[in-house]
Amino acid sequence: MNALTELFDEYEFLEADDRYRLLIDLGKALEPMPEALKTDATLVRGCSAAVWVYPTVREDGALHFLADSNAAITKGIIALVLLAVQDRQPAQILATDIEGALAPFDLRNQLSSNRTQGIPNMIALIRATAERYA
Question: Does the predicted TM-score (pTM) go above 0.85?
């Protein structure tokens, strides 16, 4: 069972307010991203909040992403996206249906559209990164 599945088992039984809190807590648990990495080059375009994603390559070739946002709920969403891809090989990431993995969370109905509009851009950036290293 993967981390997203485990998280969803908890998420699906929560009321809307508690789902919101769960996402915010996920964001708070993200590994801190050094301020120096929050640059125009790491900024994800098309998000209502500022979102930064910085890939690093581990010795085994797996990709490890640092990410942050200036909005708590958006930071939670990027943390959710990263659960699907964190510390995996580029080819595994490219083979992952990230949208499908996130679908059970029904983020579009849970959150306002301006909170979710950047998700495809976050996913596209992660895929583009994986393609570069694959």
Answer: yes
